[in-house]
Amino acid sequence: MKRVLKLGVSILMVAMILLTLAGCGYKKAGDFLLEKKGDGYAIVDLSEEGYQKKELFIYKQIGRYNITKISFRGGGLGLFAEEAPIISSQALEKIYFVDYVPASLNGAFSGCSNLKKIIRIAEGDFRKIEETYKIRLENQRVVTVKQYVKYASYIQYCEYEDMKHMFPANVSYYLNYEIENHDDYHWIDDYDYGSKITYIPNDPIREGYTFGGWYKEEECINAWDFELDTLPEVILDEETGEPVYQETKLYAKWIRE
Fold this sequence. Notes:
Blueprint: H1 2-23, E1 27-29, E2 32-37, E3 40-46, E4 55-59, E5 61-62, E6 65-70, E7 94-98, E8 117-120, E9 133-136, E10 142-149, H2 151-157, E11 166-168, E12 171-174, E13 185-189, E14 209-215, E15 248-256
Parallel strand pairs: 3-6, 4-7, 7-8, 8-10, 10-11, 12-15
Antiparallel strand pairs: 1-2, 2-3, 5-6, 9-10, 12-13, 14-15
């Protein structure tokens, strides 16, 4: 009888959680679950596919939904309570914020104990972002996640003390043609020195031209081979023992139509 009672209680609890989730009106958009918030949508959790990913990409617009915030109310999802689930992906290692820079992450990814890097591709006043992004693990150990920005942004803001948590990304993809009011960046990334580039960004688009691949120089003589080429080996500073920053630049080739 006790087993039957326990089983019944368990089934009831699961059913109530599912009903609560359904009642929240979450919408699935690729790797994310979204909730309507004001004029846009907030990311409240990952989808089943999202929980399998090592890398996530957060844009201003995901599918047809405009993203305005990343929700985290602390404490997880309780019965009859309107609280965002805790994002606790053990697969997630890197997050890309593409053209979207939140004012604060608010601990939304605090359950992702293997998160190592946050790549910020968007422009913005980075000084308005919290000084560090820290995740507190279940054993209360705190891990600080470095945030990587464009080299130009790093140079612009590195003189400020509250920017010491920012680091320049070491792979830069250049559009390789003059654009008014544009810094010529298409994408940035950060990898360990001596390693291969594992993610290839979407091809850029230029009116009247066909994209012809990524090259090692502006003149587009030697193509970057993503299967074979590696970043330069690490060089350590003789005094500090820290890696010396090295930027790998890749340039878009354009073929006139």
